[in-house]
Amino acid sequence: MSIRSACRRSLILFMLLMVPVPLLAAPFLSIASPSADGIFVLRGEQMAGVAGLDITIGYDRNTLSSPQVTMGSLVGGMLNSSNPSNPIRLAIVGSEGIAVASGVIATITFERLGDSAGVITSMTASLIDDKGNKLRIAPTAINNPQNPTHGEPSAEAPPVGDAKEEDEPLVIDVTSAPSREAPVVLGGSVTLPQEEVEPAEPKLAPQEAERQEAEGQEIAEFQPQRREPAPVEPREPEPKAAPQAVTQPVQLPSVLARFREFKGERTLANLTSLFKAVGERPLLQIPAIAIADGTSTVTLVIAMETGDRPPVFAFKAARYVSVSRSDEGEWEVEVRPEPGVVDASITMLYHGLSQEFPLVVAPAVRLPAAPGSAASEAAFRNFLATGADLNGDGRMDYLDDYIFTANFLAQSEEPAQQKE
Predict the structure, then answer these.
(1) Which one of 63, 126, 378, 405 has the minimum C-beta count within 10 Å?
(2) What are phi and psi of 184, to 5 degrees?
């Protein structure tokens, strides 16, 4: 080995030792168009353990249009949604972290305008792990194809933080049907506000214009002079309220999990008490117990501060119906549980954080009732004594207790609601 080669290797080793270890291990995102044909590939490096991604990509309107997003193998099996606006927004979330270190996150196919190969103007990203913790990320890299006529981004291309499109919540809708390999994706819509244009005044013939000008001068001669209003002292602008802090995610154990972990005596009082909320919860479910019959819907009212950007909603074992925001700033998400499910949830990605909301849902079971009343306590005691396989899995366990108790409480509310 020559002295020059040995010195070179020593220098490289020294430079690597000087780089902080966290920087080397931080996730890294890059986007490039290898063939300069309007197809841009978004790649991720050091991505092992990443469970949620919120990415925005801005592009030059004068060189690219009509983006189409295809998710890559790196995020295969994860829930995803995208808004093909400008900037493009990608939202991807999974119950577990990515297993491999690197790969393709998404491929974005544009329609090229003119001879340009296309220009990506900006890219930002926010990542979280499977516990909802925000991850440190290395600076993103944009590798635009070389083009002699469009070497710099157009001045008309809006930056990510200044986009004119109106942000709306992204929606990811997925069912747990075993026959469906890929998730069903419903992208949130983005609308471009209409610009208000004043109608142009019609042009007049020269004679008509002279006549109106003369009449205007005559009217002005007889117009009494107006007194100028007294000057108004300028008022100091009222101080703006400080932005509220983003609500941190909390662990919300499901009612189903309480039944699974319950070791006490199976009594009416004990089992019904498992449905009572414990501590402060940033949500309200309406109705409190949803029946999974395939037609009924349930609304979740979320009282959380989610930051400036709209959140991303992902659904497990439930179909998306609608999402809106109340005057008080609460998110109201309506879903339709899949028929027969006992485990359904809504996950909200916001400000680089993740919050899961388990739903209280059970299959429909019509219980014996006393004449003119709801499900009777006698029917409950009979179930506790004899048991029943309500979900058809061949055994009697906590799931049957959960299903029976949920229907008992739901049907006990029916007469009261009918009287109201």
Answers:
(1) 378
(2) -80, 130
**Are the C-beta atoms of residues 382 and 391 closer than 8 Å to each other?**
no
CATH number assigned to the domain with residue range 19-163, chosen from the 4 options 3.60.21.10, 2.40.50.140, 2.30.30.40, 2.60.40.680? 2.60.40.680
| More confident position, 3 or 38 | 38
Domain with CATH 2.60.40.10 in the chain: 255-419
pLDDT per position as a tens digit, 355-382 = 889 999 999 988 776 555 556 788 898 9
User: Which residues make up the CATH 2.60.40.680 domain(s) of the chain?
Assistant: 19-163
Neighbours of 115 (CB within 10 A): 10
Spatial distance between the Cα atoms of 72 and 59, rounded to a whole number of angstroms: 20
What are the phi and psi torsion angles at 332 (to 5°)? Answer: -115, 110
**Per-residue pLDDT, 283:** 87
CATH of domain 255-419: 2.60.40.10
Confidence (pTM): 0.57
Give the pairing of strands 39-45 and 28-32. antiparallel
Q: Output 121 or 412, whichever has higher pLDDT.
A: 121
Dihedral (Cα; 356, 107, 27, 153), 10-degree rounding: -110
